[in-house]
Amino acid sequence: MPVTLVPKVQIKTMGSLRLNDVLSEQAGLVVVPQVNAQGNGIQVQGFNPDYTLILIDGEPIIGRYTGSLELSRIAVGNIKQIEIVKGPSSSLYGSDALAGVINIITEKPTGNQGSLSTRYSSNNTLDIAGDANLTKKKTGINLFANRYSTDGYDLSPENFGKTVSPFTNYTLHSKITYNVTPTTDLSVSGRYFTEDQQFRFEVESNGDRIRTAGEGTTNDWSFNPVLTHRFTQKLKTVARFYTTRYKTITHLELESDGSPYYQDDFKQSFTRPEVHAEYFFNAENILTLGTGYIRETVQTSRYGDQEKREQETTYGFFQHEWLPVEKLVLIVGGRFDYNSLYGAQFSPKLSTQYEVSKKLTFKISGGVGFKSPDFRQLYFNFSNSAGGGYSVLGTEVALPRLAELEAAGQIQEYLFDPAKLGDLKAERSLALNVGIHAEILPSLKMELNAFHNSIDNLIETQAVAITTSGQSIYSYRNILRAYTQGIESDFSYPLLKNVSLSLGYQLLFAKDKDVAEAVKDGDVYWRDPNTLVTRRLKPNEYFGLYNRSRHLGNLKIFYNNKIKGLEASLRVIYRGKYGIGDIRGSIQGETIPQSDRNSNAILDVYDDFVKDYAVVNISAAKTVKQMVRFQVGVDNLFDHTEPVVIPNLPGRLFYASVACSLSKNKPGNQ
Amino acid sequence: MNMIKSVFSFSLITICALAFVSCNDNPATRQVVATTFTNLAADPPTGFTDMGAPIGTTGKFTFFSFKTGALVDHADSATTQWDIGFRATTIIVNSATSGPGTSQVQVVSGIFDDILEAPADGYTSDNDPSPIEGVPNANLAIPTGSDQGWYNATQGPPPTIITPIAGKVLVIKTSDNRFAKVEVLSYYQDAPASPTGNEPSRYYTFRYVYQPNDTRSFN
Lengths: 670, 219
Description:
Chain A is mainly beta.
């Protein structure tokens, strides 16, 4: 399976503070804005953010109340490395990560050391972080604390409010390790996060612009004890428990008279005990077996009542690593999940790796993944007046709610037969990755991976009706069959003694299978919006799904001179043109334009695209006496912005930081 | 938004690309011509309430006759003078539940100019029993709803943009067994190239060909 590791040293040289900063610079990943523009999700191999699992030390972060996870919730100051696994090729983390897994590995307590750092940057953004490591005999403690505050930014100063409203957040993370016996280790981690955001919005209500102000608060915490015991040299067992809570509350009031305008709250809990065992039969055979149980609850105003919805999953998994002959590794795995709402699912995985020589390795992996419909797709009963006025009804509540509206005479027109909404099925994907790892010239390393993901039963919103006041009502359906396929490549080369160069590229084709077939059959047309002449669309004229770029690339140069304590970097991140249109919305009162403008509701080459662009980031750092590190940098050097379509890309940001390591044994900057 | 005024100020544009051919007086060999009818007012509202609900709508259909190429007075709704009727996004044909005639229609996929002959069969009237209880218009020959009949409605917050689907051609068999084909081009006043959904809506611009003779040919 294709795995990318981002080590701490690189995160530091890049000057990254939050998870979205790190991920936006990785080959093949795109940090995409969320519906309300106040967030960032991650697109992997062309999948929407909902399909990538984000883990801290193997445990999932919750709080996907719009489907994707807000990446800026995660501070990266205490991270040892980030593992990016693409494709559903691992049985160990869960089956719902159709696109991949991003696992954040935090620091383990080492030595007695600490560090303090502070960074100030444009938009009055201040980051203060401290961490401490204390180890004594059998006990180790790692503590990390971070405070981040910003005034946000405003890409459309002519409009009221800001693109991103000011916020302040705090992160606390601790990990305590204890050697119970020489063969037994205990680790207990905890996390606490709290954020407060001050909103000022202008919303459009039937031609009138109404000013609102309010506050959004987000809290999460988690507790994670892990007990590891080696019964024999051959048998290692791990018992882990994880429980986490997430809560977010948003309220807006009218600025004119302070009367309530919008209120939204969302509470989620996730609890998971799991045990697994690894048995080393011999050097050629390693078996992992595990079982666990998940209980998940959600309580939100968006479900029309404050009733708690819950689901339970019982699961078991196995993975067998076998080396039948020298240089050949075969991993067979599988996972069985039983969900209280959706019944049983089995997802097998297979991967193999063959090392032809020290300079050439082949890798092939395949797997099946499935993603159950989430709570929102079942239970949403939510009317958004702040977003311009629309309602979303989950499939479990859609029929009775529509009947109520119908009885009240509020339905103007049905756009879709509600009786056909039916029960949602789990989304399924089949993934195949074929890769080469090669040293093609001395020191010139190449990683090449071709991927194909075939996805069925994709859940999409379905417009169901229009109310008499002109508001749309949506529900969900298993509509789409899609595929994403392409090639990812990464080249790295040590340009000079202390200079490394890397080049990443992804070619992506992400298409709706039904549309592709209809185009092939000659059943799709486009109408020139100016001449009103209709023509038949040719297969090569269908561009694909919205929000996917055909080309992504990055060029990075890192300089690291340990003797002189100097670091520098230049990173260029390129995103090719893409279309927008599957979800409409407005940013600061401006409607997001749709790419499709030739009357076929699909993205073809004659439509409007968001132009390709590149973001250039630079940084330089100097460490003095292995204790104090000064860093300056500029993100988005050429100040590329697109206020309406890329609201999550701030303009040019200058920053300067100072970090101080307090350690006698070991320098803080590795 | 004084939209009601436009009901009386519709314009008719005839494309006489084949004008020299139509000089031939023999009706049997006379070629039919494509005509574009603009801004057919299909019950547009005169305004909106504070809640965004349309006001000033009459709930009445606007009727059209292919033979005359003109609107038919609403007083004649119970006659066979009209072939099709328009109200908001709903298009009816003069038959069964919609009128006293026998007009039938089918939605054909293809390029308007390339449809040289009306299909022999496959036409339906507005009289199938509604498959959905309580859903208005579910029994119409031209299905209502986004991506069901002739249009797409955008997903997302209002304003919803109604776009006529490219390549959907309505082929109509009139009450006196003549054939016509229709391509809806716009739902907004003066057919803006990039409608935002805020333009005065319920103004149809459509292209049609009517075959006055007893043949299915559109040549």
